[in-house]
Amino acid sequence: MLFDNLGILNWIFLISAVLGGSLFIARIILMLFGMGDGADTPDAGHDFHPDMDTGVHHGESGHSDNSDSSFKILSLQGIMGFFLMFGAVGFTMNRIALSGAFFSVTAAVTTGFITMWLTAKLLKVLLSLQSDGTVEIYNAIGKEGTVYQRILPGSTGKVQIVVQNRLVEYEAMSRKGDELPTGTPVMATYYKGNILIVEKI
Questions:
Q1: Which CATH architecture has domain 137-200?
Q2: Helical spans, DSSP H, in the chain
């Protein structure tokens, strides 16, 4: 029978395939249902300040790009995929095709690394398709809007601004500390917490 008198190498391949496959499938299912690791997004509580000389906005959040974190080849999903294909190909080559230990291990390792790379690409595509529709305050930077509720010097008011194709209302303060009456056209220059810092345009 197929599993009679399995050698150590065959058992390694078989266990690797079963464990890797089970965890890999479970992980993908969790991700599709929103319970796995998603892509990082900047925290709306971090401050963004403009560079007075260049007008470039710099964040203090310290977040790295998603390509540096979620989509590395050495991700958890990639490792699971490696063991799945390493075990499946290795067992097939060594036990069924009788290719011998050297060719079986070589094929298994090669296929495993290819699977890691393909898994990273697949997860990048899947995560890029995810969208919860949340309007993020940092996307308002550089956008023009209108004062909805008068902004007094040193105090907050409210502005309406189109962000991500939606008309959104934010608490806002004047960047220069001056009064901005209702209806004043403004531009968002940076934000602090959940408060936009705006200036008259």
A1: Beta Barrel (2.40)
A2: 8-32, 76-91, 101-129
Domain segments of the chain as ranges:
8-48+59-129, 137-200
Residue 5: pLDDT band (50, 70, 90) is: low
How confident is the model at residue 39, as a pLDDT? 40
Look at residue 50 and give its three-state secondary structure: strand
- In this predicted model, what pLDDT tens digit does every residue of 122-154 receive, in sequence order? 777 766 665 555 678 888 999 999 999 999 998
pLDDT tens digits, one per residue of 93-121: 887 778 788 888 999 999 989 988 887 78
Residue pair 95/6 in contact (Cβ under 8 Å)? The answer is yes
Q: How far is CA 181 from the centre of its chain?
A: 40
Rounded Cα distance between 130 and 40, Å, is: 12
Give 159: exposed, middle or buried? Use CB within 10 Å, 0-12, 13-18, 19+.
Answer: buried
